[in-house]
Amino acid sequence: MIAPLIDGFGRVHDNLRISVTDRCNIRCFYCMPEEGVQFMDRAEILTFEEIERFVRAAVPLGISKLRLTGGEPLLRRDLPRLIEKLAAIPGIRDIALTTNAVLLEKHAAALYGAGLRRLNIHLDTLDRARFERITRRDDLPRVLAGIDKAVEVGFRNIKLNVVAVKGLVEPDIVPVAKYCRERGFEPRYIEFMPLDAQSLWDRTSVLTADEIISQLSREIAPLRAVPDADPRAPATEYEYTDGGGRVGLIASVSKPFCLNCNRIRLTSEGKLRYCLFAIDETDVRPLLRSQASDEAIAAVIRSNIAAKWIGHEINSPQFVPPPRPMYSIGG
User: In the 3-class helix/strand/coil scheme, how is 78-89 assigned residue by residue?
Assistant: First the structure.
């Protein structure tokens, strides 16, 4: 039996996040500048076959859950074909997709047909003007149409991701939660993190998980922590006491969950990262583009995990933001 992926702090890793592109069709101010973005040349991006090969080498090490991200993953041509390839790998038990849903109406049926069942949709607001202010694009109607189409073709496990920027999204917290309650979705409020390309972040701009819980409990219904929740999940889940569904809080800043982390990341050009905030990366693309064995790839994965730090230290004077913005790392 092959030993699982365990780092120096005893954390077992079974979750791989794969960025399929660094390109995006919106320009959220906390992620990308509006103009002058330099994307990678397409020749640098891993092919579907290279991604599949990496996953096949990682599965025997215990990787069983995948999440496809970007940039915006639906900009990657023929993405359903990759999903079919990954879903067919023995040992993969869960595949999810994070998307801004601008192109979801067009692709929802093909994604579902390829075997995808879980969607995380980035949607900070239901207010059209505020959506345009945040994303610098007037695409809210397309996003909502994409969500409706996803439900129509059969998606049931849908979560909406809201980046909680203080002084901006407070008016959206409750409307998004009510929208999710009415449709059986789960909102996930994510504390604003220092991953923007323009160095806009500071602690005063973080709307904390506790503030969000208080607002939802006061204006909708009281929330209580979900019993027996998975301690390795990035979101702490709460449920309404009136039975009206669940809410997830990702408190990366106010309540870091680094000691429970089970995730590794593969960027679109083949850099392996043991943390979203990692400074160092391991380049696996040369292995994937050569005749290197699966054992050689597995050894590099183990080495990367062995070097994993205890945590990102956002709340420490020693914190150094990663040299890459979020869109080029993968959500």
Answer: CHHHHHHHHHCC
Domain that holds residue 103: 5-329
Question: CATH no. for residue 273?
Answer: 3.20.20.70
Counting the structural domains of the chain, the total is 1
The answer to whether the Cα torsion of 23, 29, 34, 38 is positive or negative is negative
Q: What digits encode the pLDDT tens for the residues 79-89?
A: 999 999 999 99
Please report which confidence band the pLDDT of residue 109 belongs to, taking 50, 70 and 90 as the band edges: very high
Residue-wise pLDDT for 267-314, tens only, equals 999 999 998 888 889 999 999 999 899 999 999 999 999 999 888 767
Q: Is the pLDDT of residue 200 over 70?
A: no
d(CA 268, CA 105): 24
Q: Specify whether the CB–CB gap between 37 and 21 falls below 8 A.
A: no
Whole-angstrom Cα distance, residue 323 to residue 37?
Answer: 15
Specify the pTM: 0.93
